[in-house]
C-alpha cells in the first residue's frame, strides 16, 4: 500500500471548512486473514477520518485512526493523521506520532516535512532542518519543503540561506501562496524592505493571500502621505466574500497606514474592527487565579529549600516583559556585543513548563507541578536547555532568549539557572497596552482582544513581576523603555555591565548589526533610537478610556 498523502490530503496542517454533507461512518467488512481486504478497509476508514477532521469532528476522526491501529499496528498513515489531529492541541503527542510515521515509512517526504515543521514550531531548529532537508532529498521539487526550510533558516538566524530556497520555489510554482510571502519575510528580516515590498506587491497583483500580503506590505515602511494601497485595502474590506481572518488582516493594515498618517480616529476604528473580526476570547478570572497560585507557590521558603538546584551557568539571558515593551530593542543592543548571541523568541522554556503542567491554568495546582522537579531533574533539564542554546552559538558567553511571556516563568528559571541574567523590560503602562492593541497578534495573545481585558491582564502581569522582584531580590534588571530612549548610551552601558561583560561601542549601533529580526518590531529596530513612541497613547486618549479605567493606579496620565 502506498501511504503517501493523496493530493486532496496534502493541506494537512489545519482542518479546512466543514463539508456540507454529513460524514457517514461505515464499518468495512474484513475477512479473517485477508490482507488485501484489511488494507482496503484501513484505507476506507482513514479516508473517513480525514473527512471527519475536515468537518472538525476530531474525536471521531481519532477513534477511526485508533481502530486502524488496533487492527494494523504502526500503520504509518494512521499515525500521521493522528499527528495532524494533535497539532495545536497537544504538540508533544503530535511530535511522537509524526516520528513514528517517519520510522514506519522513512521514504515519505510528507512525513518528514510535517515532523520538521512541528520541530520548527517548537524552536527545535536542528531536527527541523534535518527532516526538511531529508524531505527535499526525497522530493527536490516539493515547494512546501523549500518554503519550510526557508522559514527554519530565518528562525535560526541564517536568512541568507533562506533566499535561494525561496527563489528555487518561485521558479517551480510562481503562484504558491507561501513563496512570495517567504521571500518578503527573509528580506524584511535582513532589513531589505524595498525588495520585500516588490514581492508583496506581486502577490497582491496575482491575488495570492491578498489580506496577508497587504498586512505585511504596510509594515515595510512608514507612510508620510496617503498611499494608493489604502484605497485598495478599503475596497478589499468591502468584498462580500471576505472571511473574518482576512478582515482582521486588512483592518490592521488600514489601521497601520492611518496611524502613520496621524489620522488617529480612523485608525483606531480599524483596530477595533480587527479585534472584533478575530473572535478571540480570554478568561481573565482563570488567569487571575493562576497568578494567585504562582505567587502562593514560589515563596522565599520554597525557593530556599531548593537552593543548589539546576545549573550554575551564566550563559542564559532572558529578556522578559509585556510584548511591545522594548524586548526586541533590548535584545538587539545586547546582541551587538561580540560575546552575546541574540537567539530571538524561543519556546523551549515554555515546553518544559507545559510538560510538568505548570502552565495548565485549569488545574490550579501549581505547587504539585513544580514539586515534580527534583534536584536531579532540574540539572537534567538545565543541561538539555544549555545544549539547545549552544546549538545557536557554541562560543558565545551569553545567549539571549527574548520571549516576552517568560515573565510568567521566572520562578522556573530560578530553579534551572540560578545565575541566569533576567532583564525585565518595562514601559509606560498605557503606551505599552496601546502598542499591543494596534498589533495583529495571534490567538495566543487573546488578552489583547478588547481594551478592558488588556488593562486587567496588564495588572496581573505587574502583580506577578512585583512578586518575582520580592522573592529574587537583586536578580532582575529592570530596563525602563523611557530611560533607554532618553539616554541610550548610559542605559546600554548598564545593560552590558549587568551581563558581566566589558563595554563595546558596537552596542550603540545595534541597528547596523547583521542577522534576522522576526517580530513586529523588525522595521523599528533597523532605525536609530527615536522618542516618538513615548506618550504615544495621547493620540488615542478619547478612544482608550476603557483601558485607562481597567489599568487603575497603573495608568500614569
List the helices and strands and how they pair.
Blueprint: H1 35-54, H2 58-71, H3 76-86, H4 91-104, H5 109-121, H6 125-138, H7 143-155, H8 159-172, H9 179-189, H10 193-205, H11 210-217, H12 228-237, H13 244-260, H14 264-278, H15 284-297, H16 300-304, E1 316-321, H17 327-335, E2 340-342, H18 348-355, H19 366-371, H20 375-390, E3 398-401, H21 410-416, E4 421-426, H22 429-437, H23 451-471, E5 476-480, H24 481-486, H25 488-498, H26 545-551
Parallel strand pairs: 1-3, 1-4, 2-3, 4-5
Helix pairs in contact: 1-2, 1-3, 2-3, 3-4, 4-5, 5-6, 5-7, 6-7, 7-8, 7-9, 8-9, 9-10, 10-11, 11-13, 12-13, 13-14, 15-23, 22-23, 23-26
Characterization of the model:
The structure is a single chain. By secondary structure, the chain is mainly alpha-helical. The chain has a domain at 284-554: Rossmann fold (3-Layer(aba) Sandwich). It contains 26 helices and 5 strands. The chain has helices spanning 35-54, 58-71, 76-86, 91-104, 109-121, 125-138, 143-155, 159-172, 179-189, 193-205, 210-217, 228-237, 244-260, 264-278, 284-297, 300-304, 327-335, 348-355, 366-371, 375-390, 410-416, 429-437, 451-471, 481-486, 488-498, 545-551; strands spanning 316-321, 340-342, 398-401, 421-426, 476-480. It has a 5-stranded parallel sheet with strand order 2-3-1-4-5, sandwiched between helices. Helix 6 runs antiparallel to helix 7, helix 7 packs parallel to helix 9 (179-189) and helix 23 packs parallel to helix 26. The longest helix is centred in the C-terminal third of the chain and has 21 residues, at 451-471. The termini are far apart. Residues 6-32 have low confidence and may be disordered.
Amino acid at each position: 500500500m502506498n501511504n503517501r498523502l493523496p493530493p486532496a490530503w496534502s493541506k494537512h496542517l489545519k482542518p479546512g471548512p466543514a463539508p456540507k454533507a454529513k460524514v457517514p461512518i461505515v464499518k468495512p467488512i474484513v475477512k479473517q486473514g485477508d490482507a488485501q481486504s484489511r488494507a482496503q478497509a484501513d484505507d476506507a476508514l482513514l479516508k473517513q477520518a480525514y473527512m471527519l477532521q475536515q468537518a472538525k469532528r476530531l474525536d471521531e476522526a481519532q477513534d477511526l485512526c485508533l481502530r486502524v491501529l488496533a487492527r494494523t499496528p504502526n500503520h504509518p498513515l494512521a499515525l500521521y493523521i493522528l499527528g495532524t489531529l494533535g497539532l495545536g492541541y497537544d504538540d508533544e503527542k503530535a511530535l511522537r506520532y509524526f516520528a513514528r510515521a517517519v520510522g514506519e515509512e522513512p521514504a515519505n517526504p510528507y512525513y518528514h516535512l510535517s515532523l520538521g515543521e512541528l520541530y520548527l514550531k517548537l524552536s527545535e531548529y536542528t531536527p527541523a532542518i534535518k527532516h526538511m532537508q531529508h524531505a527535499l532529498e526525497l522530493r527536490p521539487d516539493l515547494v512546501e519543503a523549500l518554503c519550510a526550510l526557508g522559514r527554519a533558516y530565518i528562525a535560526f538566524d541564517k536568512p541568507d540561506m533562506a533566499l535561494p530556497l525561496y527563489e528555487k520555489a518561485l521558479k517551480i510554482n510562481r503562484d504558491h501562496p507561501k513563496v512570495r510571502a517567504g521571500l518578503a519575510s527573509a528580506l524584511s528580516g535582513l532589513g531589505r524592505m524595498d525588495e520585500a515590498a516588490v514581492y508583496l506587491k506581486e502577490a497582491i497583483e496575482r491575488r495570492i493571500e491578498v489580506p496577508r500580503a497587504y498586512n505585511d506590505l504596510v509594515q515595510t515602511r512608514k507612510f508620510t502621505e496617503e498611499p494608493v494601497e489604502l484605497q485598495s485595502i478599503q475596497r478589499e474590506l468591502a468584498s462580500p466574500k471576505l472571511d473574518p481572518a482576512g478582515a482582521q488582516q486588512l483592518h490592521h493594515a488600514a489601521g497601520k497606514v492611518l496611524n502613520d498618517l496621524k489620522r488617529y480616529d480612523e485608525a483606531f476604528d480599524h483596530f477595533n474592527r480587527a479585534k472584533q473580526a478575530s473572535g478571540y476570547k480570554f478568561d481573565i478570572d482563570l488567569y487571575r487565579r493562576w497568578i494567585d497560585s504562582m505567587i502562593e507557590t514560589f515563596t522565599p521558603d520554597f525557593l530556599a529549600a531548593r537552593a543548589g538546584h539546576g545549573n550554575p551557568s551564566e550563559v542564559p539571558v532572558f529578556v522578559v516583559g509585556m510584548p511591545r515593551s522594548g524586548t526586541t530593542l533590548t535584545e538587539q543592543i545586547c546582541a551587538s556585543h561580540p560575546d552575546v548571541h541574540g537567539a530571538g523568541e524561543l519556546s523551549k522554556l515554555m515546553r518544559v513548563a507545559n510538560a510538568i503542567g505548570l502552565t495548565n491554568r485549569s488545574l490550579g495546582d501549581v505547587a504539585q507541578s513544580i514539586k515534580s522537579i527534583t534536584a536531579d531533574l532540574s540539572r537534567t533539564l538545565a543541561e538539555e536547555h544549555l545544549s539547545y542554546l549552544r546549538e545557536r552559538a557554541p562560543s558565545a558567553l551569553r545567549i539571549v532568549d527574548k520571549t516576552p511571556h517568560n515573565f510568567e516563568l521566572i520562578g522556573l528559571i530560578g530553579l534551572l539557572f540560578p545565575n541566569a541574567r533576567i532583564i525585565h523590560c518595562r514601559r509606560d503602562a498605557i503606551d505599552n497596552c496601546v502598542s499591543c492593541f494596534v498589533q495583529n497578534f495571534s490567538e495566543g495573545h487573546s488578552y489583547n482582544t478588547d481594551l478592558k481585558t488588556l488593562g486587567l491582564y496588564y495588572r496581573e502581569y505587574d502583580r506577578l513581576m512585583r512578586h518575582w522582584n520580592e522573592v529574587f531580590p537583586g536578580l532582575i534588571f529592570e530596563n525602563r523603555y523611557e530611560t533607554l530612549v532618553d539616554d541610550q548610551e548610559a542605559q546600554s552601558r548598564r545593560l552590558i555591565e549587568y551581563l558581566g561583560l566589558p563595554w563595546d561601542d558596537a552596542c550603540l549601533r545595534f541597528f547596523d548589526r547583521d542577522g534576522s529580526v522576526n517580530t513586529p518590531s523588525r522595521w523599528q529596530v533597523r532605525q536609530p533610537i527615536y522618542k516618538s513612541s513615548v506618550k504615544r497613547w495621547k493620540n488615542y486618549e478619547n478612544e482608550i478610556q476603557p483601558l485607562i479605567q481597567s489599568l487603575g493606579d497603573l495608568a500614569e496620565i
